[in-house]
Structure formats: C-alpha cells, structure tokens
C-alpha cells in the first residue's frame, strides 16, 4: 500500500485528474468498472508518473496508504451512491472519499452524514476547468471536515491551477456540502456569463451588422480590458472558426439549441428555496430552455416583430462600445446575485464560507476565471460583511458610469426585437434595488383585498387589515 491517492472512474475527467496527481509526483492507484480503461491509461500515460492499476475494488483499496484518499469521478446521482456503497465497507476509520463529480450539495450532505457515522470523511469537491483543467490545474472547491482538508489540502494545492500571484486555486470552502454548493453557484454564474456574452454577440450581429469574424475581433479587444476572461477568450476563438465542410462561420452551422446537464437549473431551484433573487442566472437557464423548444419556435416564426434597422459604420462602432458597457454592468449583477446565493446557503447551513476566498480560487483554472475576480476578492477583503457586491463603492461607480449605455443597449434590443433577457433582467434587478418605492406595496394591498393576508405600514409598527368588503376601516390584527 504505497499510493497516496486513488482515482476510481477513469472517464476523461477522472483520467486527467489521475494523470495530474501522478505528474505532480504522487503514486496514484487506478480503478475503473471495466478494467480495460485502467490498463489503457497505464499503457498510454504510464511514463508520466507512478500508477498502480487495480482490477478489483479490494486491490484498489489495498494499494492505498492510510488514511486512504479515494477520489471518485463518476456520474452524479445513483452511480455515485453505487460506488460509495461498493467502497465504504472496505474502508476504515479516518479514510477519505473525495467526490469530484458535479453532485447536488444536498446529496453530498446526506452522504457526508452517513459516512461520518462510520468514521469516514466524505469530501464533496467541486472541480472546475473541464478536461484541460483536470489535467493541467483545475480550480478546486472541497467541502467536508477540517481534518480531511488537513490531509488532502496540500495535495490539492499542488495539482490545482495557480492564480497570477501564484496562489493555489483551492481552499477549504466549508463543511459537508459547501464545496458542491459553491461549485453549483459557479456553474450558475457560468450560465449567466455565457448568456450575456451570447446576447452581446447577437446585438453586434443583428443591430450593428457585424460578421462573426468582426465580432471575434471585438471580443479580442474587450479581452484586453476589464472583461479579460477565459469565456471571452474562447468566444473569440469559436466565432472566428470557419466550418470546413461548408466554408460558413462555424456558429452558423451549429444547431441553436443549448443543452444543459443541470447545475444551472439547480442554482435557480436552490435560490428559489432560499428566497434569493438570481434573476440573471434564471434567465440564462430559461434562455437555454427556450432555445430547445424547436416545435414551439417553429410555430412562432410568423409572429410580428419590429422593422429591423441595421446601423451605419460609425454608429455600429459606437454601439459596440455601449454593448461592452452593458455586458460589464450585467456581469457585475450576475456575480452579485451568485455571491448572494452563496452567502444565503452559507447562512442557512452554517458553513461560514469566505466569499472573498471563493472569488480568489476562481481566478485560475475554472471556466469563469477572469481578471475581474480579483476585484471581488478585494471588495470582500475590504468589507467582509459587504451586504452585496453592488454595495462596494468601486463596482457602484463602474455601474454608474456604464448605466446610460446599458439602458441604451437594452432599449435598442427592445426596439429592434433582439431578445436580451440577461441584460434586461440584470438592469431590472439593479433598478429594483435602487428604487425608492416598489409596487410591492400594491401587491400587499391586493393580497389583503382578496385574501385578508394583512400588511405592514410605513409609519407605525403592527400588522394590519382593511375591511375591503365593508366600510374600509383598518383593523390591527
Ligand atoms: C466546469 C464546468 C463543468 C460543466 C460544464 C457543462 O466548471 O468545468 O462547469 O463542470 O459540466 O460546463 O455544463 P452544462 O452541460 O450544464 O452546460
């Protein structure tokens, strides 16, 4: 038993993670349901480091030094439970099971509790960065016990991505399901980022009249400024790609129906449960859903729209600058909403998540890595109790500077009939927060009218009801 870590589940993510550990000098035990994959890995990449191929669960467990560190990289849901059921009886007190899949945090909480009773540490761990990240350094979001992090942390720090300042993109996020919760929120933000970029693209195409290659260049310019991020970078790559078969822009030959595996949807479902308004993230999930309703879209194509008007050359360039402002302001809002959700989850489950640290470990390796995240860390470091990112003076100032353009862009989208649910929802959220009065007062009046649901007054304490069906006197209830 000489392996410091074992990986079971050797599909591409598991395989790359195992190679990453091995390349960093760890001896890695390997296991897969079908042994052919295990042997294929050793055959292909055996010279990258020390691997111990195990054909059976027993041999795999026996290969691990104690306390054992066993990483499971299988599909979230039932397959994960099945693997836990297979291995848990073979483990001993103090051993660790690390679940690196995109598990639902509620499942992670359940598994952690069950395994804790057996003395096993269950470490639900968010891993972001796709295949490339798993191999060369992902952003890692481990939950679970402090003791497990003490044993595992140094290894994760070694294999993780490093931010520009050299800091490893991993931290102990918090107990039990905290890691998977934060990974879920990461993905929700990822959905919002992607949707906002998509809207910017569509506006540049339909309103400004730019071609995909021209838009790729615009994104490249933006990527040199405050929007500098992995997603903007790959967007330019995708947009400039030409389909070999047809010679058309790649983006024009791909079916425009976005798929999803569920983490974005969970972010919204959980936000609804926690009562957190993540409207921008929700619109991103709904936008994918709308896109997938092919029949509904087909039967709606005849619906009337405005007369389109493409801008002239100079106007187009000025419009592109405004779209950058709208994108940036909307991005601040999505992160504000995502961090609000993490704060609410942390509060609900007593996780004590350090929001500044979360932003810091997202600076490298993960899909939403961006220069911008440094600023979020800075904001929370300056004010750990910051109620919202919009309460940070620098972000507020930036939005103040962007807001005229942001409003113009949303207005142009509306008059031109280009759907921008992300930009519009972000702006509505911003305006709702700043509003002196909201029509919620009227909602309360309506609720009291039809259901005697009562209301509070602005001028004195108490709970009131108006006798709407009678003489409209107000009674205190
Ligand atoms: C990551 C990603 C990854 C996720 C994909 C696909 O952080 O590396 O978030 O975990 O699986 O991005 O997500 P959808 O299929 O839901 O778009």
TrEMBL record:
Pathway: Carbohydrate degradation; pentose phosphate pathway; D-ribulose 5-phosphate from D-glucose 6-phosphate (oxidative stage): step 3/3. Substrate binds at residues 102, 128-130, 186-187, 191, 261, 288, 447, 453. It catalyses: 6-phospho-D-gluconate + NADP(+) = D-ribulose 5-phosphate + CO2 + NADPH. NADP(+) binds at residues 9-14, 32-34, 74-76, 102. Keywords: Gluconate utilization, NADP, Oxidoreductase, Pentose shunt. GO terms for molecular function: NADP binding; phosphogluconate dehydrogenase (decarboxylating) activity. GO terms for biological process: D-gluconate metabolic process; pentose-phosphate shunt. Residues 179-469 form the 6-phosphogluconate dehydrogenase C-terminal domain. SMART domains: 6PGD. Its EC number is 1.1.1.44. It is an enzyme of class 1 (oxidoreductase). Catalyzes the oxidative decarboxylation of 6-phosphogluconate to ribulose 5-phosphate and CO(2), with concomitant reduction of NADP to NADPH. This is 6-phosphogluconate dehydrogenase, decarboxylating.
